[in-house]
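Dock magnesium ion; give full complex structure.
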Amino acid sequence: MVVDDAQFMRLRVTKLLTRYGHEVVEAENGEEAVRTYCLLKPDAVLMDITMPIKDGLTALSEIRQFDPQAKVIMLSALGQQAVVLQAMQRGARNFLVKPFDTERIIKAIQQVLKRCEK
Ligand SMILES: [Mg+2]
């Protein structure tokens, strides 16, 4: 699941993941992310931090409460190190700093999915 309030970002990441054979659902804020997660239980989540209605940190906590095994990778902007640290403490598996390159996204996803199979 790709969660970001910026449509161009969702489009970009979805396109990339689809090209690599992943099935992707999107959410445009934290609230939609939590709802969609509970419905579909996606294998992994790419989660933006700054979003309206419900931010990524809150959504991360709620998703992990629903599913303690949830694999969430945070998408952060430069200068959000403190929030990223909080996210890791709340159970995020990894983080990617924007603007990120395609190789990093794919690598991070493959890493969490590999751990998922074990
Ligand atoms: Mg944002």
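Observed: Helices lie at 7-19, 30-40, 56-66, 81-89, 102-117.
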